[in-house]
Design goal:
The protein is α+β, with helices and mostly antiparallel strands. It is built from four helices and five strands; from the N terminus they run H-H-E-H-E-H-E-E-E. The longest helix has 19 residues.
């Protein structure tokens, strides 16, 4: 898979940024979880949650899905929030500046978008949505 040129440049710049030892330790928990799923032949499902699902969780979903696709990790990445709000316009502009192809599919108060990271890649839907609370045991990994 070849990322769009501008997006590839953004990734190259991000890879040069330092990561603190504390952050690496926290990320190690996520890496272990993902590796365990891969070793068991299971799909990796990641759901990023924040209050409004208008910026941070959306960025996390987009970048995580992009990284998974780039590195060939079988993953489904999602985002959600406890309140329904539209994808922040500045956040949409930010991912476009980073090099993603963003295609609005409607003009409602809470528009949906197709987001692409490379030619020929599967589009993934992106729109703010409330988090559903399901009656099951959840394994929560908080990386704050």
């Amino acid at each position: 898979m070849t990322l769009f040129s501008k997006l590839s440049d953004s990734v190259d710049k991000a890879l040069e940024l330092p990561i603190s030892p504390e952050r690496k330790e926290l990320l190690g928990l996520l890496i272990d979880f993902i590796q365990e799923k891969i070793n068991q032949g299971e799909m990796v499902n990641l759901n990023f949650i924040c209050t409004h699902n208008s910026r941070r969780s959306q960025f996390s979903q987009i970048w995580a899905q992009t990284a998974a696709d780039y590195y060939g990790i079988p993953a489904n990445c999602y985002s959600g929030g406890v309140e329904v709000t539209a994808f922040n316009e500045r956040a949409v502009d930010s991912i476009m500046r980073a090099g993603f192809d963003v295609i609005p599919t409607d003009t409602s108060d809470n528009p949906r978008y197709h987001i692409l990271h490379s030619r020929g890649a599967d589009q993934f839907w992106h729109f703010p949505k409330p988090m559903m609370i399901l009656p099951m045991t959840l394994k929560i990994l908080q990386l704050s």
